[in-house]
Design goal:
The complex is a heterotrimer of chains A (657), B (479) and C (214). Chain A contains 27 helices and four strands. Chain A folds into three domains: 215 residues, no CATH class; 288 residues, no CATH class; 65 residues, no CATH class. Chain A is 73% helix and 4% strand. In chain B, helix 2 packs antiparallel against helix 3, helix 4 packs antiparallel against helix 5 and helix 7 runs antiparallel to helix 10. The longest helix of chain B is centred in the middle third of the chain and has 32 residues. Chain B is globular and about 70 Å long. Chain C starts with a helix and ends in a 27-residue tail after the last helix. By secondary structure, chain C is mostly helical. Chains in contact: A-B, A-C, B-C. Chains A and B meet through strand 1, helix 26 and helix 27 of A and helix 7, helix 9, helix 10, helix 12 and helix 20 of B.
């Protein structure tokens, strides 16, 4: 079975690559229909195979870890391309492929009138390939390849409409911010290679307990010593912060909404941004040995969960609301990881992939219907024009707001309970954050719902006349995603979080006994319906419900209230609109300061010192030397013969004496 | 003492090539004017057959045959395969050129095949005698090939220069070998190696003396400074297809010469030849890269580039470790592939009887023919050592080898001059992509098989750069 | 022994002297003849080493065949005196001499008899045949290099022919089967002419002459 899994994984990973190459290399001449057929066909194949592999791995207990190709042997280091398929990988593969397939199909409708469609499909297939490489990797090296691959394609896709300045800016911003994270990540990889001598997961992880027990230290700033495990973990965390958009590296995600909506759904909600979460889960054997890093993860995650949620409340762009909500939900996942509730983080990742993709695609559906209008102030009352979209958005919103018995409820409640049970430093702060966060979550998403689908119709006459439900290729994926948004949580919670006899994650995650918060919360779990019924007595439920209520009061009933609030608490409002000043700070310090420094470097050091003196100077010197040496080549045979003999004599003297 | 049959079997690729070359010659003679398809086809069958035979034999254990004159090992097998494949590509690229310039078609093929045979003998020789006859067999046809084109005096001049200097270098090599024979009393490579171990200290001097002459001969064959003078003149003065031949296969054969003579016969005077080679390598890297900058003629530029590349290749030999030798082998093979593509493109561009001469002639090539320009781009980037192309991996390998034995300064010098070298490679790319073409007309493409071969050749530079492990593994297995 | 040393010295001096003279001589024929002297001297040296076969083969092949051919070519082409490039030769002579002396000093420093492993000469009986000994190893122990050498000769022939046969029109080749297949009709034409009355030279070659062969 191991071989079967290995071979199927090869097919799963490379089918999207094939699609990407076929469409990408002939993107100028390929008919659109054909590109659709190729990419969707190969994507479906990949999806079906990944479901089968998931069945083999999750239910039949199979696993595989083997190398496909040795890329390079350098000294004692070996770099492989190989696949590690365990429960974690299998779950991720299915999630990635499912969302990716849905987005492929949805894009057929969404991108209908776009001329660069073939290129678009090539990109998203390429993205899927890179993401699959990332999740199936059995070593850090390949993980990094996939990591950079998704970063690259994400850049290309955000800037897909490359003649829009905002799209280019967003793409660039995403790329640059990600580089900051990648820098940490690559340092972490270097540290792993340095201390373990290999980049393969299995040997690194198996050496970890011993390694941590010996408590190795390193000196980063001379005179200080820090634990190597903590340093590696924190560097990995920095990588994850970049890719998973954690505070303060979250600034790129809202800007990335300049890309086409399917991309926002595929990359910036369901797959790429979860790479960091996945990576930390994968690295759980390392993180578990560093309490410092875990606390840091917890605090960063919880902070993000609450404070980016606030930002969503003041956004007017429907996609940005969903984008900030993504930031907030990623914070939840991260916080769960910090509390060593990796399973809860993964669980929320999966349910979130479903309902957030649903929300994005529903928002996309609205945008298509509104002729690419994204401002919610120009919407309202869409409910009667677009019943399916309304229904699915409503389901997504309920799920996001963690209203039982929707999917989001189970995963988010699992996280909140886990953080409640955690005892590591920062857990108390984190619990308060995520608790308030659940109120804010409900508030912003229902605000968006009421503004978009209820109330008076604020769009202009022209748009209203053309308003109608979108096509089946768009609503189809919506309905398909609505189903898991409703039932996935209830179905999976026992196997994911509180396994008794059957566990979805199995042993793919390492949790030290003293951190195992899920075991504590498991004692209070008595079944799915019990949990739903019990929820009415818990705080998060009432927080969420009050969030909905406030949203209804402010945006459904008394629409003047928010305006009054904004005026009354103008400083809070201003802070929120300015996004806590992160962007301005970056703009001021990094962008402008960087530019000024660069200009100085350019004018003084580069142009005068390096260009004039060093480069052109040495260039001139070499050219002079070159012209001089060239004269040696006279073309006369006896000169050459003479040179040979002279050379021989010189050599004799050089070697003998 | 008859020669055992098993020995003959070990030499199968060689006698296959010998017999088939004679068959090619005879068939071409008797088929008169219709000869060319036959000549060409039979030549390719010859080389392909040799490749197949060698590949089938590849897993056989290391065996010495013909009373110590010949050896079959992984080195000889791998080098033989590459010599044959590269010669096959050379013949393919030459086909149209020969017809357009009315060069003697049969003679070209037959002499090229004999030269390839000489290289095969050389790389599998295990005594000084067979080594020397192999060397002569592979160089002699080259002298004739250069003079084969009769429409200008430059070819005769280049041929003469190459011949006279080659004779001098052969003389030096032979003199050095005779010294080694005098000191050890044997011509068999393994016996020499063991005889040197037993020599008293005072007699090392004579070995080092002979060694210097041997080094001179080797440096000449590699085209390394200060025995490089022939390289630019001969590359420039030969017909393009012959330059193609001289610039590719002989480098592989010369690598075989280096390995047999230095690594296998004289490992115990490693320090002495290391000294000599350091001088040769540094001079080659410096001079090759620097003088290439001012060249306006593309063939001369590539000639100087080849001098520099041979310097880089020697770095791995200087390391004197198994990984160093395999790195050098990798470098040589990659260089042969790059050089094949570069000169192949140059001869492909020489259409309608007009040779491409100056780098300026490549102006705006991208606008006229993007495919040719892209292939040239790949090759130039690879030669400059830009990742992820093969040239980069090859450079990394030799630098790693040289650093691992503590010669960091060598690696630094090599790197610095690699940067200098990047200038003239990139200039070709700049000329092709950013300059306005002089003629706007499209370039007529060569026939399909040549295009396919060139595409394979060009892409192999990319693929070997991204996935170097297979070839690297073969090179490692050889030592 | 005394006589052997004498012979050695005499012929060594002759070898070096004629080699020098060959280079310095400005008359090509003299050069060629000095080269012959070189060969003769070195063959005598070989005789001293009991390498009779090599000594004789040197005389036969080089002096008898190669050099004779060479002289023929030189005489045919009439390139007796090389006058150009004299300046360069003289100009570089001092440097050359310095270099040569340096080389010589190095060699004398390095090459002393103690360094060589092969010193003891074997005393062979009077009926020892050099040719037999050579033949015994050439086609067994050295079969491989000998075969390769024969290929070199083949290449030399092919190369020489392909370089020498310059132009198609220049080639004087027999086409034997065409010659043999020639019939009377190819060589002989019978023209029908009307019997001529002598009426003056003016109408010979006129248009009414039926000058067509069948």
């Amino acid at each position: 079975m191991t071989d079967v899994i290995h071979n199927l994984t090869i097919a799963i990973v490379f089918a999207p690559l094939l699609g990407c190459l076929l469409t990408g290399l002939w993107c100028r001449i390929m008919p659109t229909r054909m590109a659709h057929a190729i990419t969707i066909g190969l994507m479906s194949l990949s999806f079906l195979l990944s479901v089968y592999v998931a069945k083999l791995v999750l239910f039949d207990g199979g696993a595989s870890n083997s190398n496909l190709y040795t890329w390079l042997i350098s000294g004692s280091f070996q770099f492989h391309v190989g696949f590690l398929v365990d429960q974690l990988t299998a779950l991720m593969m299915v999630t990635v492929n499912f969302v990716s397939l849905a987005v492929h199909i949805y894009s057929v409708g969404y991108m209908e009138e776009d001329k660069g469609q073939v290129r678009f499909f090539s990109y998203i297939s390429g993205f899927t390939f890179a993401m699959l490489m990332l999740v199936t990797a059995n070593n850090f090296f390949q993980l990094f390849f996939g990591w950079e691959g998704v970063g690259l394609v994400s850049y290309l896709l955000i800037g897909f409409w490359f003649n829009r300045p905002a799209a280019n800016f967003g793409g660039l911003k995403a790329f640059l911010v990600n580089r900051v994270g990648d820098f940490g990540f690559i340092l972490a990889i270097a540290a792993v290679l340095n201390y373990f001598g290999t980049l393969d997961y299995v040997p690194v992880f198996s050496q970890m307990p011993q390694f941590a027990a010996s408590n190795p230290t390193m000196s980063i700033v001379s005179g200080t010593s820090s634990s190597v495990v903590s340093v590696i973990s924190i560097l990995l965390l920095i990588g994850a912060m970049g890719k998973s958009a954690q505070v303060p590296l979250h600034v790129w995600l809202p800007e990335s909404m300049e890309g086409p909506t399917p991309i926002s759904a595929l990359i910036h909600a369901a797959t790429m941004v979860t790479a960091g979460i996945f990576m930390i889960c994968r690295m759980s054997p390392i993180f578990e040995y560093s309490a410092t890093a875990l606390s840091l993860v917890l605090v960063i995650g919880a902070t993000g969960a609450l404070f980016t949620g606030f930002l969503a409340v003041v956004q007017h762009d429907i996609k940005r609301v969903v984008a900030y909500s993504t930031l907030s939900q990623l914070g939840y996942m991260m916080a769960a990881l910090g509390a060593s509730a990796y399973a809860a983080g993964m669980f929320h990742l999966i349910t979130h992939a479903a309902f957030k993709a649903l929300l994005f695609l529903a928002a996309g559906s609205v945008i298509v219907a509104m002729h690419h209008e994204q401002d919610m102030r120009q919407m309202g009352g869409l409910r009667k024009y677009m019943p399916i979209t309304y229904l699915t958005f409503f389901i997504g919103a309920l799920s996001l707001a963690a209203i039982p018995p929707f999917s989001g409820f189970f995963s988010k409640d699992g996280i909140i309970e886990a953080i409640h049970a955690a005892t590591i430093p920062g857990a108390g702060y984190a619990y308060i954050c995520v608790l308030i966060g659940s109120f804010v979550t409900a508030l912003y998403i229902f605000r968006a719902l009421f503004l978009t689908f209820h109330g008076e119709e604020r769009m202009d006459q022209h748009v209203r006349e053309h308003l109608h439900e979108t096509k089946a290729v768009i609503t189809g994926p919506l309905l398909a995603l609505a189903v898991p948004s409703i039932i996935l949580g209830g179905l999976m919670i026992r196997a994911m979080l509180y396994p008794t006899d059957f566990s979805l994650l199995g042993h793919s995650i390492t949790v030290l006994p003293q951190h195992d918060v899920l075991r504590i919360t498991a004692e209070e779990f008595h079944g799915v319906w019990q949990m739903v019924l019990h929820s009415v007595t818990t705080l998060p439920f009432w927080f969420a419900l009050s969030g909905i209520a406030v949203a209804w009061i402010c945006y459904g009933r008394f629409t003047t209230l928010p305006v009054w609030m904004a005026r009354r608490f103008s400083w809070i409002y201003r802070v929120l609109v300015m996004k806590y000043g992160f962007d301005d700070f970056n703009q001021l310090v990094f962008v402008r300061g960087g530019r000024r420094l660069a200009r100085w470097m350019y004018e003084v050091t580069d142009r005068e010192l390096i260009d004039d003196t060093l480069v052109n100077g040495s260039g001139r010197a070499i050219e002079w030397l070159s012209l001089t040496l060239r004269r040696l080549q006279t073309g006369y045979l006896y000169h050459y013969a003479f040179a040979m003999i002279l050379g021989l004599v010189v050599f004799l003297i050089w070697v003998i004496f | 003492m008859p020669v055992p049959v098993s020995d003959l079997m070990l030499a199968a690729p060689q006698w296959f090539v010998l017999i088939m070359t004679c068959v090619t010659l005879l068939v071409s003679l008797w088929s008169g004017k219709k000869a060319s398809p036959w000549t060409y086809g039979l030549s390719q069958v010859t080389l392909l057959g040799a490749v197949v035979i060698t590949a089938l034999m590849y897993d056989q254990p290391r065996t010495v045959a013909f009373y110590g004159n010949m050896i079959f090992d992984k080195i000889s097998a791998l080098l033989t395969i590459f010599v044959c494949v590269i010669t096959a590509f050379v013949l393919l690229y030459s086909r149209d050129y020969l017809k357009q310039h009315k060069m003697a078609y049969t003679e070209y093929h037959v002499l090229t095949l004999f030269s390839a045979l000489g290289m095969m003998v050389l790389v599998s020789s295990y005594s000084f005698i067979s080594l020397y006859v192999g060397l002569e067999l592979f160089t002699l046809p080259l002298y004739a090939l250069i003079a084969l084109r009769r429409d200008a005096a430059v070819f005769a001049e280049a041929s003469m220069k190459y011949f006279v200097m080659g004779a001098m270098a052969s003389g030096m090599l032979l003199y050095g070998l005779s010294m080694l024979y005098g000191a050890t009393g044997t011509v068999d490579i393994p016996s020499i190696a063991s005889a040197i171990v037993g020599l008293p200290q005072g007699q090392h001097l004579i070995i080092v003396f002979g060694l210097v002459f041997v080094l001179a001969g080797i440096a000449f064959k590699l085209g390394a400074v200060p025995f490089h003078m022939w390289v630019p003149d001969v590359y420039d003065g030969s017909p393009n297809t012959v330059t193609l031949m001289i610039a590719t296969g002989p480098k592989i054969a010369a690598f075989g010469l280096v390995v047999r003579l230095l690594a296998e016969a004289l490992p115990d005077v490693h320090v002495a030849w290391q000294h000599g080679l350091i001088l040769i390598a540094v001079l080659s890297i410096v001079l090759g890269n620097i003088v290439a900058i001012v060249q306006t003629n593309i063939k001369r530029m590539l000639a100087y580039s080849s001098i520099a590349h041979m310097g880089y290749m020697l770095l791995g030999i200087i390391a004197g470790t198994a990984s160093g030798y395999s790195a050098s082998m990798f470098y040589t093979l990659i260089y042969a592939i790059m050089s094949l593509a570069a000169f192949g493109l140059v001869s492909m561009l020489s259409r309608d009887g007009v040779d491409i001469q100056r780098i300026e002639d490549l102006r705006g090539l991208n606008a006229r023919n993007p495919w040719l320009a892209f292939m040239m781009l790949l090759v130039m980037f690879s030669m400059a050592g830009v990742p992820p192309l093969a040239g980069f991996m090859a450079k990394i390998a030799v630098l790693e080898a040289v650093i691992s034995v503590g010669q960091v300064w060598l690696a630094v010098v090599a790197l610095l001059f690699a940067i200098v070298g990047a200038y003239y490679y990139l200039r070709v790319v700049k000329v092709m992509y950013f300059d306005e073409p002089i003629k706007k007309t499209d370039i007529e493409l060569p026939s399909m098989d040549m295009r396919v071969a060139m595409t394979i050749n060009g892409l192999s530079v990319l693929i070997l750069g991204m996935f170097p492990a297979v070839l690297m593994g073969l090179c490692r297995a050889a030592f | 022994m005394y006589i052997e040393s004498l012979v050695f010295v005499v012929f060594s001096v002759m070898l070096i002297g004629s080699a020098l003279a060959m280079i310095v001589s400005r008359n090509t024929i003299y050069s060629a003849l000095f080269l012959v002297a070189c060969f003769v001297a070195s063959s005598v040296l070989w005789l001293l080493l009991e390498a009779e076969f090599l000594a004789l083969i040197l005389i036969f092949v080089y002096v008898g065949a190669v050099m004779t051919l060479f002289l023929f070519v030189v005489m045919l082409l009439n390139m007796d005196i090389v006058s150009h490039e004299k300046g360069a030769f003289v100009r570089y002579l001092p440097v050359g001499i310095v270099l040569m002396l340096g080389m010589l000093a190095l060699m004398m420093y390095v090459i002393s008899p103690t360094h060589f492993a092969v010193l003891t000469s074997v005393q062979h009986p009077a009926d020892y045949s050099n040719i037999k000994a050579l033949g015994a190893v050439l086609y067994t122990q050295y079969a491989y290099p000998v075969e390769v050498t024969s290929v070199i000769l083949l290449v030399a022939i092919i190369a020489a022919v392909s370089l020498a046969a310059r132009h198609k029109g220049n080639r004087r080749s027999q086409n034997i089967d065409v010659q043999l297949a020639a019939t009377k009709g190819d060589r002989l034409q019978v023209l029908k002419m009307p019997s001529e009355k002598f009426s003056g030279a003016s109408d010979i070659g006129g248009p009414e002459q039926p000058a067509r062969g069948e």
